[in-house]
Amino acid sequence: MKLNRNFIVHRTEQETILVPAGGAAFSGIIRGNALFGDILVLLEKEISEADLLKGMTEIYDAPAEVLQKDITRVLTELREAGALDE
Q: What is the pLDDT of residues 19-39, one digit of tens each?
C-alpha cells in the first residue's frame, strides 16, 4: 500500500494535516498527531502493513499491540478517505 498521490501532507510540530488535491474524491482535511504523521511518512513509499508496524516500533518505544491498534485506526481512516493506493 502507498499514500495516494492526490493527497498532500503538511506537518507542524504539533499536528499533521492531510489535504486532498487535484483528483481526490474526498473533500475535507484529516488531522492527526505526530504518530499519524510518521505513518504517512512511511506510506510515501510502497509498504506492507507488517513493515509499517516494524517501522513504527523502530520510532516509538511502545508495545507492538498498541502501535498496531493505532496503525489499524489510521489505515481505516485513510481507506475511507480514498487516500491509500492498495
A: 998 778 888 899 999 999 999
pTM of the model: 0.92
Q: How far is the C-alpha of 36 from the C-alpha of 11, rounded, in Å?
A: 10
Helix (H, G, I), strand (E, B) or coil at 51: helix
Domain boundaries, the chain: 2-85
Cell triple for 75: 489505515
Tell me which residue of 70, 18, 72, 82 sits closest to 49, measured CA to CA: 72
Give the three cell numbers for residue 32: 492527526
As beta bridge partners, residue 9 has: 18
Alpha carbon 30 to chain centroid, angstroms: 10
CA 52 to CA 67: how far, in whole Å? Answer: 10
